[in-house]
């Protein structure tokens, strides 16, 4: 029962494993302080609280994706038009990956990501979308069957890598390039076991490959062997073959 108003504080107070006596006794109870809706709210924007949010995102991601079958992450532009050849290629790739026994993981957005998810669904495969909180967030595309939304890019990137046996990279913008180069760096530095990275669309990627050869490697900023970290192709079957061969699936 609650103490009547005006009743003196007890001489001894037990709060969990802690015993407080005399001037160490605190007013109220732990439940009262937890459920009290008054007080400042700035603590929800502090770094210690952000750490808990980050931890919860890792736990949700690990818990949700741990039982996925072998998977491939497919990256590509959110701006790819639905009626474009690039979109059609994305559908083909998603479908072929599913038929080869892979779950398809994308960023969950529109464009090339939606295309790969669509292909996976049409082939009765596992279609996964890992979304991200953005000012222009459009939500997960309708072909995502298992979706997660993240606040933090680095947590999302961990899920792309941890639960994939390889990457297929369709034409894309800065986000796609960010994901591509992070994957290449992880493989180059042996932070992850080597796995295939396939760039789909030779015309689109040729300028980047030439720059790596003629500028980055030519000036000694990378090694010639680094060009072996990825494959470039226009052929869906070849892309799937490379993924299947190197993952042993």
From TrEMBL:
Region called Disordered, residue ranges: 1-41
Pfam family of the protein (one): Lysine_decarbox
Keyword Hydrolase on entry: yes
The EC number(s) this enzyme carries: 3.2.2.n1
Catalytic reaction(s) noted: N(6)-(dimethylallyl)adenosine 5'-phosphate + H2O = N(6)-dimethylallyladenine + D-ribose 5-phosphate; 9-ribosyl-trans-zeatin 5'-phosphate + H2O = trans-zeatin + D-ribose 5-phosphate
SUPFAM superfamilies cross-referenced by the UniProt entry: MCP/YpsA-like
Name of the top EC class for this enzyme: hydrolase
Keyword Metal-binding (UniProt): no
Entry keywords, A to Z: Cytokinin biosynthesis, Hydrolase
Coiled coil stretches, renumbered: none
PANTHER family according to UniProt: CYTOKININ RIBOSIDE 5'-MONOPHOSPHATE PHOSPHORIBOHYDROLASE
Family affiliation: Belongs to the LOG family.
Name of this protein: Cytokinin riboside 5'-monophosphate phosphoribohydrolase
């Amino acid at each position: 029962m609650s103490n009547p108003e005006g009743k003196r504080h007890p001489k001894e107070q037990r709060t969990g494993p802690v015993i407080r006596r005399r001037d160490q006794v605190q007013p109220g109870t732990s439940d009262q302080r937890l459920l009290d809706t008054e007080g400042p709210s700035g603590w929800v924007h502090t770094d210690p609280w952000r750490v808990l949010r980050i931890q919860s995102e890792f736990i949700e991601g690990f818990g949700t994706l741990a039982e996925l079958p072998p998977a491939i992450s497919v990256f590509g532009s959110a701006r790819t038009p639905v009626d474009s050849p690039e979109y059609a290629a994305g559908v083909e790739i998603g479908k072929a990956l599913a038929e080869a026994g892979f779950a398809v993981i994308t960023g969950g957005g529109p464009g090339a990501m939606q295309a790969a998810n669509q292909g996976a669904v049409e082939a009765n495969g596992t279609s996964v979308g890992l979304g991200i909180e953005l000012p222009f967030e459009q939500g997960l595309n309708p072909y995502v069957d298992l979706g997660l939304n993240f606040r933090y890019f680095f947590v999302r990137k961990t899920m792309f890598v941890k639960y994939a046996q390889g990457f297929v990279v369709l034409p894309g913008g800065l986000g796609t390039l960010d994901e591509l180069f992070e994957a290449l760096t992880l493989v180059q530095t042996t932070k992850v076991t080597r796995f295939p990275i396939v760039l789909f669309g030779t015309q689109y990627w040729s300028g980047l490959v030439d720059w790596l050869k003629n500028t980055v490697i030519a000036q000694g900023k990378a090694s010639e062997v680094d060009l072996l970290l990825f494959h470039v192709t226009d052929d869906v079957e070849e892309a799937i073959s490379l993924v299947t061969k190197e993952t042993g699936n």
